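Repro case for the chain-ordering regression, as requested:
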Amino acid sequence: MKRYSAVFISVLLIVVLLFSFVANGKELVIYSYDSFGQTLMEMMEQHFEKEYDSKVRFVLFEDTGAMYTRLVLEKDKPKADLVIGLDEVYVIDAKADDLFTAYRPKEADKIREELVFDEDFYMTPYDFGYITFNYDSQLLPNPPKTHKALADSSLGKKIIIPNPTTSSPGQAFLLSTIAYFGEDGYLDFWKELKKNILVMPSSWSIAYGIYSNGEAPIVLSYGTSPVFHLLDENTERYQALVLDGVAWAQIEGAAIVKGGKNHELAKAALDYLISVQMQEALTESQFMYPVRIDAKLPESFRIAAHVPEILNPRIDLKDVHDKLGTWIKDWENVMR
Amino acid sequence: MKVLRILALVILAIIIYLPLAGLVSKLVALPNLFELSKELIQDPAIGHIIRFTYTQAFISALISLVVGLPAAYFFSHYNFKGKKFIRNLTMIPFILPSILVVLAMIVYYGQQGFFSRTFNTGTFIYGYVGIIFAHVFYNFSLSIRIVGGSWEKLNEKLTESAYVLGDSKLKAFFRIELPLLWPSIAYSWLLAFLYSSLSFAIVLVFGGVSYNTLEVYIYTLTRRLQMDRAHLLAFVQLLISFFFILIVNGVSKRTDKVNKAFTISRARPLCLERRKLIKIVLVLYFALLLILFGGPLFSLFWRSLAPKGDSVGISLDNYHSLFGSRVERTLGTPLWQVFVNSLLLSSVSSLIAVSLSYVLARYYPKLRPFFLVPLGVSMMSYGFGVLVTLKNWVPTPILMLFTQIFITFPVVYSIVSLGIEEINPEYRFAASTLGSSESEITRRIYLPLLRPALSSAFAYGMALSLGDLTGVMLVGEGQFVTFTVALYRLIGHYSFPEGTALGTLVSFLFIGLFILIESGGGEKSYAKDRPSSKKLS
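-- result from build under test --
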């Protein structure tokens, strides 16, 4: 038994040594979620190494919900300086929870006006993506182009939508239907649409995986999804599908954590995030659009969705915050 | 000696109960706890959700058991070529993250699936049937391992004496074998039941919004930032699960004296079996398993060989790409590091879980229900408990192991403790009468006799740890990339084909590893001790 315990303890020790994370002195701590691109993280690290002789530590969360929950939990003793990746729907809660410090980045006037969802700059938009349908042109050469056609019974079970109750793009689509049809009309649309939905997976990843394996030709995703297939597989088979020329824009924001230890560095990081350099890098790293007016889009974005009108301004974020629970509940009753 | 036992108990209490205590204390401190509870009780939707959650889990576990029992019988009674391979193959769903299991099901059974088109059946997976089917796919290996493990050691002399006394085969089975196998059956049902009750992705993919489990509901509450309600429901979930654990523990007490009921191994080469029927049934049964459950996995593996872009045929494109620079840039970690991390974390945590299980099962057998509690809590709620209790003072690497031990413990412990229970206590008495020390008894009697159980437990521990995302992300903060983290990151960046390639590699790597662990010494040499093979009939 003695040998037993000796083995046990030595295993523990080895593990401690193998895993050990070296503790650093002063470093900028940035919270983000897991799909934040490695390219951007490296750029940020190099920038801070060169300009401020300071380290940057990224803490990545499974999803934005986990990230937000952590911020609330650490409110009295914040560990993060900057948080990147909460979308605009969080802003009301974040203000009510008093989590962030307002800061207007140096080049804030270069940000497209319709994207600034918080005039006080508690949260600053840094990228956005249109939430649109995508279709597989090989399986479906003539896709429906309007909401009405999408819900038409002639289509059949061809649609995959990530579940609005568990996924951000799904929720964004639910909001877009409320913005487009109004609070009184969106449920009627879903009633019609229901019969054409094959499956509503828990996450965007599963939904897109099912779609790209050819199980169904239409999926709710991003307007930039075809860009990936063009770049990686050199195919234009997968196309974006904008219904009635409108779409919801999922706007992602960054914010400085109130009470963070490195306030000035956090401001510098936010400035850098809005710089032309970062903004142009995020296009093919995140497959999202830059928020700056003067950022150039890469050639590959020619295949991305063309969206004449963003639906976001049609509903008030305050309404979203107050009524989302009820909207979802009503929606669930219709879908059941 | 005693110190070690108590240390094991304390470690486990810290891993399991401290975070749960944190969760409960947050709940108790809520000023509006009473109103929340009242609201919860009065909400008819919750009652509906609870009923669905546990009904589907009950059915799923029952079918998993029924599907696995014949395999348990064949594996425990016969040795044949490919036995280890097939037995380990059934564990793949435990290794793979749910996203790949779901995809495997759809690639095979979906409306465009291989099975649906080949047999022209149409698809049945979108709905209640699909949920149950997927859960069976996940869990049927548990009964193969657990019940099979006990059955293999069941002393055949017992049934033979029953025949001599005039019992028919069936009667002998019900009178003698079933009571002795009962605890293993009950526990493999319980584990499948609890796993199915915590199901998340499967219920949403195959059930849509029509079916909602507690786990899904708790997650949606978290998303809407209603943390208090989420924690309260997590606590309710824990209570319900514990209630079932207690029931199963109560009804599965060994009724007979187990002395002499269990020996070492009764399995004998299949070629000695004279009756053709057995062989035919065996082949048919495994062919069916292969078509129903092997099919989805093989379609997934096959999918990883698809070429990039529009061309058709077979290629290694996805594997090239997997080891290429784009994937490394996406992951932020070289691929070899991912494998090292996964191997290290899963093997070390599983080894510790097995060691703890051994000590706790031997010295604290009465506490069994309390060691199964992790199966009543989702990783999400446990993670919150960890944040409010352990995160600030336990070093990161240790905490990482803690989360993995939490995940693996119920299965590892169940396998080990059932194995220990089946060891004839006379051996121990005899040894200590002859003056053997505890450590000698462990080394000479328990460890050799437990070898099959320990290696099964270790394999399950590794598999469960490999498939974990939440625990690794919670503690590793995205910097510690394991196989599952890598997989989700790839898929999050559209690299689904590379994801299937990675899943395929990992599956075969670990199946190979498990076979190696099982084959290493022990088992065979002891099997010779049993009387030379006799005819069954």
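Ordering looks correct now. Chain B touches chain A through 73 residues (CB under 8 Å).
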